[in-house]
Amino acid sequence: MDNNFVLDLSDLSGEMRLLLDIMSAEGKDIGRSPGRKTDFRGIDWDLFLQLVIHHRVYPCIYTTLKNMEERQVPGRVLEALHHLYKRNAYEMLYLSGEMEQVSRLAANEQIRALFLKGPVLADYLYGDLSLRSSMDLDLLIQSCDLYKMERLLVQLGYEKDDYIQSVLSDWKWRHHHITFLHPKKGIKLEIHWRLNPGPGKEPSFHQFWERKALSPLTNHPVYMLGREDLFLFLITHGARHGWSRLRWLEDIRRLVKQPLDWKRLHLLLKSYQYVHVGGQALILASELLNTRVTAEMKGLLKPRSRQLAQDAVFYIKEMVNLHTPPLPEHVARHHQRHLFSLMSGQQKLLFISSFLYPYHEDAETLPLPKKLHFLYFPLRPVLWAWRKTKKRAFS
Protein backbone atom coordinates (compact mmCIF):
# COMPACT_ATOMS: atom_id res chain seq x y z
CA MET A 1 0.00 0.00 0.00
CA ASP A 2 1.03 3.62 -0.56
CA ASN A 3 3.09 4.81 2.43
CA ASN A 4 0.66 7.71 2.84
CA PHE A 5 -1.80 5.21 4.30
CA VAL A 6 0.54 3.52 6.81
CA LEU A 7 -0.86 3.61 10.35
CA ASP A 8 0.94 4.34 13.61
CA LEU A 9 0.67 1.07 15.56
CA SER A 10 3.51 1.78 17.99
CA ASP A 11 1.22 1.74 21.05
CA LEU A 12 -0.09 -1.78 20.48
CA SER A 13 0.86 -4.32 23.13
CA GLY A 14 2.93 -7.42 22.46
CA GLU A 15 -0.17 -9.52 23.07
CA MET A 16 -2.14 -7.59 20.47
CA ARG A 17 0.70 -7.84 17.96
CA LEU A 18 0.83 -11.59 18.47
CA LEU A 19 -2.93 -11.84 17.96
CA LEU A 20 -2.70 -9.85 14.72
CA ASP A 21 0.19 -12.01 13.53
CA ILE A 22 -1.76 -15.22 14.15
CA MET A 23 -4.79 -13.83 12.32
CA SER A 24 -2.60 -12.70 9.41
CA ALA A 25 -1.17 -16.21 9.08
CA GLU A 26 -4.52 -17.39 7.65
CA GLY A 27 -4.03 -20.91 8.91
CA LYS A 28 -0.43 -21.14 7.67
CA ASP A 29 2.71 -21.26 9.74
CA ILE A 30 2.79 -18.19 11.95
CA GLY A 31 5.42 -15.67 11.04
CA ARG A 32 5.51 -16.42 7.31
CA SER A 33 3.29 -13.44 6.48
CA PRO A 34 5.28 -10.72 4.70
CA GLY A 35 6.46 -8.02 7.06
CA ARG A 36 5.62 -10.05 10.18
CA LYS A 37 8.05 -11.27 12.78
CA THR A 38 6.26 -13.28 15.42
CA ASP A 39 7.51 -12.99 18.97
CA PHE A 40 6.13 -15.32 21.64
CA ARG A 41 8.52 -14.07 24.31
CA GLY A 42 7.21 -12.21 27.34
CA ILE A 43 3.57 -12.75 26.47
CA ASP A 44 0.98 -12.34 29.21
CA TRP A 45 -1.16 -15.32 28.22
CA ASP A 46 -4.08 -14.30 30.41
CA LEU A 47 -4.21 -10.95 28.61
CA PHE A 48 -3.84 -12.72 25.28
CA LEU A 49 -6.89 -14.87 26.08
CA GLN A 50 -8.84 -11.77 27.11
CA LEU A 51 -8.03 -10.17 23.75
CA VAL A 52 -9.04 -13.27 21.78
CA ILE A 53 -12.37 -13.47 23.63
CA HIS A 54 -13.02 -9.72 23.41
CA HIS A 55 -12.45 -9.68 19.65
CA ARG A 56 -14.53 -12.88 19.18
CA VAL A 57 -11.84 -14.54 17.06
CA TYR A 58 -11.23 -17.68 19.12
CA PRO A 59 -12.40 -20.11 16.38
CA CYS A 60 -9.78 -18.97 13.86
CA ILE A 61 -7.08 -18.49 16.50
CA TYR A 62 -7.58 -22.01 17.83
CA THR A 63 -7.49 -23.68 14.41
CA THR A 64 -4.26 -21.86 13.57
CA LEU A 65 -2.51 -22.53 16.88
CA LYS A 66 -3.42 -26.21 17.07
CA ASN A 67 -1.65 -26.82 13.75
CA MET A 68 1.63 -25.21 14.84
CA GLU A 69 4.58 -27.55 14.48
CA GLU A 70 6.44 -25.92 17.35
CA ARG A 71 4.48 -25.67 20.58
CA GLN A 72 5.07 -22.13 21.86
CA VAL A 73 1.65 -21.61 23.42
CA PRO A 74 0.93 -22.95 26.94
CA GLY A 75 -1.31 -26.00 27.05
CA ARG A 76 -3.86 -24.27 29.27
CA VAL A 77 -4.31 -21.54 26.66
CA LEU A 78 -4.93 -24.07 23.89
CA GLU A 79 -7.31 -25.97 26.16
CA ALA A 80 -9.31 -22.80 26.88
CA LEU A 81 -9.44 -21.95 23.18
CA HIS A 82 -10.52 -25.50 22.33
CA HIS A 83 -13.39 -25.23 24.81
CA LEU A 84 -14.51 -21.93 23.26
CA TYR A 85 -14.19 -23.39 19.76
CA LYS A 86 -16.38 -26.41 20.58
CA ARG A 87 -18.99 -24.34 22.37
CA ASN A 88 -19.17 -21.95 19.42
CA ALA A 89 -19.60 -24.84 16.95
CA TYR A 90 -22.63 -26.11 18.90
CA GLU A 91 -24.08 -22.60 19.24
CA MET A 92 -23.76 -21.91 15.51
CA LEU A 93 -25.56 -25.16 14.66
CA TYR A 94 -28.26 -24.20 17.16
CA LEU A 95 -28.60 -20.74 15.59
CA SER A 96 -28.76 -22.29 12.12
CA GLY A 97 -31.77 -24.37 13.11
CA GLU A 98 -33.52 -21.35 14.57
CA MET A 99 -32.66 -19.26 11.52
CA GLU A 100 -34.22 -21.82 9.19
CA GLN A 101 -37.38 -22.03 11.30
CA VAL A 102 -37.80 -18.24 11.44
CA SER A 103 -37.17 -17.96 7.70
CA ARG A 104 -39.75 -20.64 6.90
CA LEU A 105 -42.43 -19.15 9.16
CA ALA A 106 -41.76 -15.63 7.85
CA ALA A 107 -42.15 -16.87 4.28
CA ASN A 108 -45.45 -18.51 5.23
CA GLU A 109 -46.64 -15.06 6.37
CA GLN A 110 -45.38 -13.46 3.11
CA ILE A 111 -42.65 -11.61 5.01
CA ARG A 112 -39.51 -11.20 2.92
CA ALA A 113 -36.44 -11.51 5.16
CA LEU A 114 -32.71 -11.06 4.55
CA PHE A 115 -30.35 -12.48 7.17
CA LEU A 116 -27.45 -10.08 7.72
CA LYS A 117 -24.82 -11.97 9.74
CA GLY A 118 -24.77 -15.12 11.85
CA PRO A 119 -24.62 -18.59 10.26
CA VAL A 120 -25.11 -17.39 6.66
CA LEU A 121 -22.08 -15.09 6.94
CA ALA A 122 -19.97 -17.82 8.56
CA ASP A 123 -20.81 -20.24 5.78
CA TYR A 124 -20.31 -17.70 2.97
CA LEU A 125 -17.03 -16.11 4.12
CA TYR A 126 -15.43 -18.88 6.18
CA GLY A 127 -16.83 -21.99 4.55
CA ASP A 128 -17.37 -23.51 7.97
CA LEU A 129 -19.91 -22.59 10.66
CA SER A 130 -17.42 -23.33 13.41
CA LEU A 131 -14.89 -20.72 12.22
CA ARG A 132 -16.93 -17.60 13.03
CA SER A 133 -18.67 -16.77 16.28
CA SER A 134 -22.10 -15.17 16.48
CA MET A 135 -24.11 -14.16 19.50
CA ASP A 136 -27.47 -13.61 17.82
CA LEU A 137 -29.49 -13.53 14.61
CA ASP A 138 -30.04 -10.35 12.58
CA LEU A 139 -32.55 -10.06 9.78
CA LEU A 140 -33.72 -7.19 7.62
CA ILE A 141 -37.38 -6.80 6.66
CA GLN A 142 -39.61 -4.04 5.32
CA SER A 143 -40.86 -1.61 7.97
CA CYS A 144 -44.45 -2.37 6.92
CA ASP A 145 -43.92 -6.00 8.05
CA LEU A 146 -42.69 -5.15 11.55
CA TYR A 147 -45.97 -5.72 13.36
CA LYS A 148 -46.60 -8.96 11.48
CA MET A 149 -43.10 -10.18 12.37
CA GLU A 150 -43.57 -9.19 16.00
CA ARG A 151 -46.76 -11.26 16.26
CA LEU A 152 -44.96 -14.22 14.69
CA LEU A 153 -42.03 -14.03 17.11
CA VAL A 154 -44.31 -13.69 20.15
CA GLN A 155 -46.08 -16.87 19.03
CA LEU A 156 -42.67 -18.57 18.92
CA GLY A 157 -42.01 -17.57 22.53
CA TYR A 158 -39.88 -14.46 21.97
CA GLU A 159 -40.22 -11.42 24.20
CA LYS A 160 -39.74 -7.90 22.86
CA ASP A 161 -37.06 -5.77 24.51
CA ASP A 162 -39.18 -2.64 24.30
CA TYR A 163 -36.48 -0.04 24.94
CA ILE A 164 -37.39 2.36 22.11
CA GLN A 165 -39.24 5.48 23.25
CA SER A 166 -40.68 7.61 20.50
CA VAL A 167 -42.83 10.60 19.65
CA LEU A 168 -44.16 11.51 16.20
CA SER A 169 -42.85 8.16 14.83
CA ASP A 170 -39.20 9.26 14.99
CA TRP A 171 -38.25 5.65 15.73
CA LYS A 172 -38.56 4.85 12.03
CA TRP A 173 -35.41 6.82 11.19
CA ARG A 174 -33.61 7.45 14.51
CA HIS A 175 -33.39 3.69 15.19
CA HIS A 176 -32.80 0.70 12.93
CA HIS A 177 -33.72 -2.47 14.80
CA ILE A 178 -35.81 -3.99 17.56
CA THR A 179 -34.48 -6.76 19.81
CA PHE A 180 -36.36 -9.92 20.75
CA LEU A 181 -35.18 -12.44 23.35
CA HIS A 182 -36.25 -16.05 23.76
CA PRO A 183 -36.01 -16.83 27.50
CA LYS A 184 -36.02 -20.62 27.07
CA LYS A 185 -33.80 -20.94 24.00
CA GLY A 186 -31.43 -18.18 25.11
CA ILE A 187 -31.46 -16.66 21.60
CA LYS A 188 -31.41 -12.96 20.78
CA LEU A 189 -32.94 -11.92 17.49
CA GLU A 190 -32.67 -8.40 16.05
CA ILE A 191 -35.24 -7.30 13.48
CA HIS A 192 -33.88 -4.52 11.25
CA TRP A 193 -35.85 -2.19 9.02
CA ARG A 194 -32.68 -0.23 8.15
CA LEU A 195 -29.03 -1.27 8.01
CA ASN A 196 -27.96 1.67 10.17
CA PRO A 197 -29.64 4.25 12.39
CA GLY A 198 -30.55 7.53 10.70
CA PRO A 199 -30.60 10.17 9.65
CA GLY A 200 -29.00 9.12 6.39
CA LYS A 201 -29.80 7.50 3.09
CA GLU A 202 -29.36 3.87 2.15
CA PRO A 203 -30.78 1.53 -0.51
CA SER A 204 -34.41 0.53 -0.17
CA PHE A 205 -35.39 -2.96 0.94
CA HIS A 206 -36.68 -3.59 -2.58
CA GLN A 207 -33.20 -2.87 -3.98
CA PHE A 208 -31.59 -5.19 -1.44
CA TRP A 209 -34.12 -7.90 -2.26
CA GLU A 210 -33.52 -7.59 -6.00
CA ARG A 211 -29.78 -8.16 -5.42
CA LYS A 212 -30.14 -10.83 -2.73
CA ALA A 213 -28.15 -14.09 -2.56
CA LEU A 214 -29.40 -17.55 -1.62
CA SER A 215 -27.54 -19.29 1.17
CA PRO A 216 -26.90 -23.01 0.55
CA LEU A 217 -26.69 -23.64 4.28
CA THR A 218 -30.25 -24.84 4.93
CA ASN A 219 -32.92 -26.93 3.24
CA HIS A 220 -35.50 -24.17 3.34
CA PRO A 221 -34.43 -21.09 1.33
CA VAL A 222 -32.62 -18.53 3.45
CA TYR A 223 -31.60 -15.26 1.82
CA MET A 224 -28.80 -12.82 2.56
CA LEU A 225 -27.48 -9.58 1.10
CA GLY A 226 -25.71 -9.67 -2.26
CA ARG A 227 -21.92 -9.25 -2.27
CA GLU A 228 -21.72 -5.50 -2.83
CA ASP A 229 -24.59 -4.77 -0.44
CA LEU A 230 -22.91 -7.02 2.12
CA PHE A 231 -19.73 -4.95 1.80
CA LEU A 232 -21.78 -1.78 2.37
CA PHE A 233 -23.38 -3.27 5.47
CA LEU A 234 -20.19 -4.68 6.98
CA ILE A 235 -18.15 -1.47 6.57
CA THR A 236 -20.88 0.80 7.96
CA HIS A 237 -21.57 -1.57 10.85
CA GLY A 238 -17.87 -1.96 11.67
CA ALA A 239 -17.16 1.77 11.37
CA ARG A 240 -20.13 2.69 13.56
CA HIS A 241 -18.66 0.43 16.27
CA GLY A 242 -15.12 1.77 15.79
CA TRP A 243 -13.95 -1.64 14.48
CA SER A 244 -13.66 -2.45 18.18
CA ARG A 245 -13.79 -6.19 17.41
CA LEU A 246 -11.26 -7.69 15.03
CA ARG A 247 -13.84 -10.24 13.93
CA TRP A 248 -15.44 -7.52 11.77
CA LEU A 249 -12.13 -6.80 10.03
CA GLU A 250 -11.62 -10.52 9.49
CA ASP A 251 -14.99 -10.51 7.71
CA ILE A 252 -13.76 -7.69 5.46
CA ARG A 253 -10.52 -9.50 4.66
CA ARG A 254 -12.43 -12.58 3.57
CA LEU A 255 -15.10 -10.64 1.69
CA VAL A 256 -12.62 -8.75 -0.51
CA LYS A 257 -11.33 -12.13 -1.74
CA GLN A 258 -14.77 -12.83 -3.19
CA PRO A 259 -15.50 -11.84 -6.82
CA LEU A 260 -16.81 -8.36 -6.00
CA ASP A 261 -17.76 -6.00 -8.80
CA TRP A 262 -15.54 -3.12 -7.67
CA LYS A 263 -16.87 -0.61 -10.21
CA ARG A 264 -20.42 -1.31 -9.13
CA LEU A 265 -19.36 -1.22 -5.49
CA HIS A 266 -17.62 2.13 -5.91
CA LEU A 267 -20.78 3.59 -7.46
CA LEU A 268 -22.89 2.16 -4.63
CA LEU A 269 -20.66 3.67 -1.93
CA LYS A 270 -20.46 6.97 -3.79
CA SER A 271 -24.25 7.14 -4.12
CA TYR A 272 -24.70 6.81 -0.36
CA GLN A 273 -21.53 8.78 0.60
CA TYR A 274 -19.57 5.90 2.14
CA VAL A 275 -16.46 5.79 -0.09
CA HIS A 276 -14.25 7.11 2.73
CA VAL A 277 -15.67 4.45 5.09
CA GLY A 278 -14.86 1.73 2.57
CA GLY A 279 -11.32 3.10 2.43
CA GLN A 280 -11.10 3.04 6.22
CA ALA A 281 -12.01 -0.66 6.27
CA LEU A 282 -9.47 -1.56 3.57
CA ILE A 283 -6.64 0.36 5.27
CA LEU A 284 -7.34 -1.31 8.62
CA ALA A 285 -7.58 -4.76 7.00
CA SER A 286 -4.31 -4.13 5.16
CA GLU A 287 -2.34 -2.65 8.06
CA LEU A 288 -3.61 -4.93 10.81
CA LEU A 289 -4.33 -8.20 8.98
CA ASN A 290 -1.95 -7.98 6.04
CA THR A 291 -4.80 -7.95 3.50
CA ARG A 292 -3.68 -7.35 -0.07
CA VAL A 293 -5.13 -4.17 -1.57
CA THR A 294 -5.45 -4.54 -5.31
CA ALA A 295 -5.44 -1.81 -7.94
CA GLU A 296 -9.23 -1.97 -8.34
CA MET A 297 -9.68 -1.35 -4.61
CA LYS A 298 -7.50 1.76 -4.51
CA GLY A 299 -10.29 3.97 -5.79
CA LEU A 300 -11.77 3.77 -2.29
CA LEU A 301 -8.60 4.94 -0.56
CA LYS A 302 -8.88 8.60 0.34
CA PRO A 303 -6.63 10.73 2.61
CA ARG A 304 -9.63 11.06 4.91
CA SER A 305 -9.86 7.25 5.10
CA ARG A 306 -6.39 7.07 6.60
CA GLN A 307 -7.30 9.44 9.45
CA LEU A 308 -10.49 7.51 10.12
CA ALA A 309 -8.48 4.28 10.21
CA GLN A 310 -5.97 5.80 12.65
CA ASP A 311 -8.85 6.96 14.86
CA ALA A 312 -10.17 3.38 14.93
CA VAL A 313 -6.85 2.06 16.25
CA PHE A 314 -7.84 3.73 19.55
CA TYR A 315 -10.68 1.22 20.05
CA ILE A 316 -8.37 -1.73 19.43
CA LYS A 317 -5.60 -0.40 21.67
CA GLU A 318 -8.04 0.38 24.51
CA MET A 319 -9.98 -2.89 24.12
CA VAL A 320 -13.19 -0.86 24.01
CA ASN A 321 -16.51 -2.62 24.55
CA LEU A 322 -19.27 -0.33 23.34
CA HIS A 323 -21.95 -2.77 24.48
CA THR A 324 -21.34 -2.30 28.22
CA PRO A 325 -22.32 1.25 29.20
CA PRO A 326 -21.53 3.50 30.88
CA LEU A 327 -18.36 4.03 28.85
CA PRO A 328 -15.30 5.64 30.42
CA GLU A 329 -15.45 9.38 29.79
CA HIS A 330 -12.44 9.48 27.45
CA VAL A 331 -13.89 6.60 25.41
CA ALA A 332 -17.32 8.24 25.18
CA ARG A 333 -15.76 11.51 23.99
CA HIS A 334 -13.65 9.74 21.37
CA HIS A 335 -16.59 7.69 20.14
CA GLN A 336 -18.83 10.74 19.79
CA ARG A 337 -16.16 12.53 17.73
CA HIS A 338 -15.47 9.44 15.63
CA LEU A 339 -19.14 8.91 14.76
CA PHE A 340 -19.42 12.52 13.62
CA SER A 341 -16.20 12.30 11.60
CA LEU A 342 -17.58 9.29 9.71
CA MET A 343 -20.40 11.40 8.28
CA SER A 344 -20.28 13.16 4.94
CA GLY A 345 -21.13 16.85 4.78
CA GLN A 346 -24.72 16.09 3.84
CA GLN A 347 -25.03 13.48 6.58
CA LYS A 348 -23.69 15.97 9.15
CA LEU A 349 -26.27 18.53 8.03
CA LEU A 350 -29.06 15.96 8.37
CA PHE A 351 -27.73 14.91 11.77
CA ILE A 352 -27.61 18.46 13.11
CA SER A 353 -31.05 19.21 11.64
CA SER A 354 -32.46 16.12 13.36
CA PHE A 355 -32.03 17.83 16.73
CA LEU A 356 -34.91 20.12 15.72
CA TYR A 357 -37.20 17.09 15.47
CA PRO A 358 -38.97 16.31 18.78
CA TYR A 359 -37.56 13.63 21.08
CA HIS A 360 -39.48 11.48 23.52
CA GLU A 361 -37.94 13.58 26.34
CA ASP A 362 -40.01 16.50 25.10
CA ALA A 363 -43.21 14.52 25.65
CA GLU A 364 -42.00 13.59 29.13
CA THR A 365 -41.18 17.21 29.96
CA LEU A 366 -44.54 18.50 28.74
CA PRO A 367 -47.17 15.78 28.15
CA LEU A 368 -49.64 16.81 25.47
CA PRO A 369 -52.61 15.04 23.89
CA LYS A 370 -51.63 13.16 20.75
CA LYS A 371 -53.60 15.55 18.52
CA LEU A 372 -51.39 18.40 19.80
CA HIS A 373 -48.05 16.62 19.33
CA PHE A 374 -47.29 18.90 16.39
CA LEU A 375 -46.68 21.65 18.96
CA TYR A 376 -43.48 19.88 20.03
CA PHE A 377 -41.78 21.26 16.92
CA PRO A 378 -41.96 24.96 17.92
CA LEU A 379 -41.65 24.09 21.62
CA ARG A 380 -38.57 21.91 21.28
CA PRO A 381 -35.92 24.66 21.87
CA VAL A 382 -37.81 25.87 24.96
CA LEU A 383 -38.19 22.35 26.39
CA TRP A 384 -34.52 21.55 25.69
CA ALA A 385 -33.40 24.75 27.48
CA TRP A 386 -35.69 23.97 30.41
CA ARG A 387 -34.19 20.50 30.88
CA LYS A 388 -30.64 21.88 30.72
CA THR A 389 -31.43 24.57 33.29
CA LYS A 390 -33.11 22.07 35.58
CA LYS A 391 -30.16 19.67 35.27
CA ARG A 392 -27.67 22.38 36.24
CA ALA A 393 -29.82 23.40 39.20
CA PHE A 394 -29.71 19.87 40.66
CA SER A 395 -26.06 19.12 39.80
UniProtKB/TrEMBL annotation:
Any matching Pfam family: NTP_transf_5
The protein's name: Nucleotidyltransferase family protein
Taxonomic source organism: Ferviditalea candida
Origin organism lineage: Bacteria, Bacillati, Bacillota, Bacilli, Bacillales
